[in-house]
Amino acid sequence: MTARVRKLPAAAPGTAVRARRSLGARLAERAGGGLVRLFLIAVALFWLVPTVGLLLASLRSPSDMSASGWWTVLQKPSRLTFESYRKLLENGDITHSLLNTVLITVPATALVVAIGSLAGYAFAWMEFPGRDWWFVGVVGLLVVPVQVALIPLAELFGRIGLFGTVLGVVLFHTGFGLPFAVFLLRNFFAEIPRELLEAARLDGAGELRLFARVVLPLGGPAIASLGIFQFLWVWNDMLVALVFTKSGTQPITVALQTQVRQFGNNIDVLAPGAFLSMVIPLAVFFAFQRQFVSGVMAGAVK
Prior knowledge:
Layout: H1 15-20, H2 23-30, H3 34-47, H4 49-58, H5 62-67, H6 83-90, H7 92-125, H8 131-140, H9 146-160, H10 166-189, H11 194-202, H12 207-218, H13 220-235, H14 239-244, H15 252-262, H16 267-287, H17 289-300
Helix pairs in contact: 4-16, 6-16, 7-10, 7-13, 7-15, 8-10, 10-13, 10-17, 13-16, 13-17, 15-16
């Protein structure tokens, strides 16, 4: 009598691969469906609640704000008014501080982008003595906190006449923004194919022409992301402005803090001023978010 051997069914292709996958990987694959997207949308909407609340509060009268919360306006939207924004434009301290914010943010952003682009190209493609050590030193400056330099630079600016001026704040933000700018742009520029640069040199292009005609157009995403990052940091800064500015050179962040300290119930000026100071950087970020993400991701890894 011959023993009968029962054949097992052949395993489906890919079964062994799926079996070797971890439980976390399989859960992550299944979690990428519509429920996760709905959850992320809900989180994003919840994150925007303070912004919407500040907008609605800025469109209400002071009596309504003292009587009830901003969410009650959804029942009577006809009571919204732009009277608070009219008072804001009539407040000379707020409008002047908003102008100071622009005068500080735009030059500080432009200087960091310009100097960082030139330095990043030099560290990536130019040969000079101690290039790698200089770059290590620049990267090391990334870990220096701003608080360490507040008192020494305040004393230095006081001796040379820059303390309390817009120029002093611009120089401070430029100096602390350059290490990250050089690090980001150097890594991005190093990814440019060497053959492309050599072909431009064979055509007679010098370093400046090569930088302007080849490197800058290719480095657009990284430069845009750097500009957005620097703009947001300088616009929202309060610590440096609180230390280095005076009454006539204060940006909007310090001016609003002064309004809270002097007039605690001046909500009809504080709410629209706070929303205006917040919506401008938000608009800039959402307008260039693709360039910001692509530039940071491309420059972070060589």
